[in-house]
Design a protein that fits this description.
10 helices, about 325 residues, 6-stranded parallel beta sheet
Amino acid sequence: MAQQLGYHPDAFARSLRRRRSQTIGVLAYDLSDPYCIPIVRGIQAGLQPASYLPLLMDAQTQRGLFDSYLQMILERRAEGVIVIASWVFDETNLLSDVQKNNVPIVIVSRDLTARGVSSILVDNEAGGALAMRHLHELGHRRIAVIRGPEEMFDSGPRWAGVQSAAAEAGIEFDPHLVFQLPNLVDPTSGFEGGLDCARRMMATGRPFTAVLAFDDLTALGVVRGLLGAGLRVPEDCTVLGFDDVLPAEVSTPGITTIRQPLREMGLLAAEWVVDAIKARELRREQKPRLHRAPPELVVRMSSAGPVERGKRTGGKLELAT
């Protein structure tokens, strides 16, 4: 009868009686970044069966907003917090505020287990090595590399993996063909950075047959830059990305990339935060957990073997002597 009359229980009043908010704060570094969306969807899918409502907030890559939104989440008595943070931020306030309020927290895309925070991230070093080995197996030896911004937590490990695999293969990078993206302002910065790096690598006049980009948006910018210089991908130059976000799949050419299981990482974050809430209710100690997700090579149209018996110099194909 109540349902026929359109009556719904007052969840807010019920939560006050039980002193339970049934909400989980989800703080993302930038929701306009296609990297965040699959993680958020995984979190939502994981929280729904447990009857928790995600309180989603977008820090827009601004540390001030990050701190402000975290405080708002705690003021609204969220029972747990999930943070998506692949950029380097000052975690002091985060940890002190959350731990002081005895709120379980899980962080995605950073390893803060040493600070007592359960962490979920891809194995970036293994991913960098996987990308480099793919290019080597295709026959590429002259490889341009675009490193990530210094503020991105993923940048160092990913570059370490690339260097390790290159050393194993006996490949030395031309220092004139190693670039670094500036610190990000917004997600389009990656695309613009890739476009700029493509122009700069062409201007060096140095031969290269492949470009290993920091992530997929950077790779898309590289493709645009190479096409603007009259080069075809992959016929004239292979381009490889990282992450496997949707634009990499639907672009032409589709970008060969190193896949992060983003939705699965979100699902696991939801599972862990719910487990931590239950452990707190039972007054059971729970040690911080770490999950390094294995990366996966996804081969698409943007990678192929180098042009046979040729080399690229200043954007023109010249026969090798």
